[in-house]
């Protein structure tokens, strides 16, 4: 596929979350609270000004309210509508990582939950740098399935079958190689975490449907894959115990840039 084709596919996948916003809200997990506590303890700012970028339906946003004042920025109307329905106390704004609708230096911490791979780093990183106060922090969080559990490995095989570009986020530490820190940010530190979430079988199906691999398809074209997922867990208890591994990448704004 050409570079233009890659960008077009990426844009289509990013926009496709609007078609499964309800499933995303119903079934996507939050993040380990103890990991967030550790991150913000290391940041060490009392009641920081936080911007949750690419906030989706607010899975991370709602957890951030305990740490400071929160602005949630999300480009898709359907996702933002879910956020505004369930998250109270955060300011919700339409916008994206490449054009963040807040003033220069007005934010202490930018967080990104499960969304950084949708950004154009060449535009997003200087924009995040712009809105952060001097010495401000960028935190990117990622949940991924623990594929050492056999049934989760089988689930991943179903969900990635036929993919031309398998999701590299299943490899621990991948973001250190992917993230273009210079000249905007320090090299990220990696903080690991884990959690186990009770998930009904319907929530499992909703979560799979909310992945761009399926959400970009029509509901009819999603059905065979979802039927295969349902068959995988047919003999399992309901709800399921689903283990996740999580990584938090934490870095700081550099005092100067090459811009």
Describe the structure.
The chain is α/β, with parallel strands linked by helices. It has a single domain (3-148, 166-196, 245-252), classed as Vaccinia Virus protein VP39 (Rossmann fold, 3-Layer(aba) Sandwich). The protein is 39% helix and 23% strand. The chain has 11 helices and 7 strands. It has helices at 3-16, 21-27, 33-43, 61-64, 77-86, 121-131, 150-160, 174-178, 201-209, 212-215, 219-232, and strands spanning 49-53, 69-74, 91-94, 107-113, 132-145, 189-199, 240-252. The chain has a 7-stranded mixed β-sheet. α6 links the parallel β4 (107-113) and β5. α2 packs across α9 (201-209), α7 (150-160) packs antiparallel against α11 (219-232) and α9 packs across α11 (219-232). It is globular, with a radius of gyration of 18 Å. It starts with a helix and ends in a 7-residue tail after the last strand.
What's the quick description here?
It is built from eleven helices and seven strands.
Structural class: alpha/beta
CATH topology: Rossmann fold
Q: What is the second-level CATH architecture?
A: 3-Layer(aba) Sandwich
Order of helices and strands: HHHEHEHEEHEHHEHHHE
Count of alpha/pi helices: 11
What is the mean predicted local confidence, pLDDT? 90
The first-level CATH class name: Alpha Beta
Number of self-contained structural domains:
1
Sheet with the most strands, sense and barrel status: 7 strands, mixed
- At the fourth level of CATH, the homologous superfamily is Vaccinia Virus protein VP39
Report how far the terminal alpha carbons are from each other: 32 Å
Strand content: 15-25%
Please report the total strand number as a whole number: 7
Helix content: 25-40%
Overall radius of gyration:
18 Å
- The largest sheet has its strands arranged as 3-2-1-4-5-7-6
Low-confidence stretches: 1-5
* Tertiary shape: globular
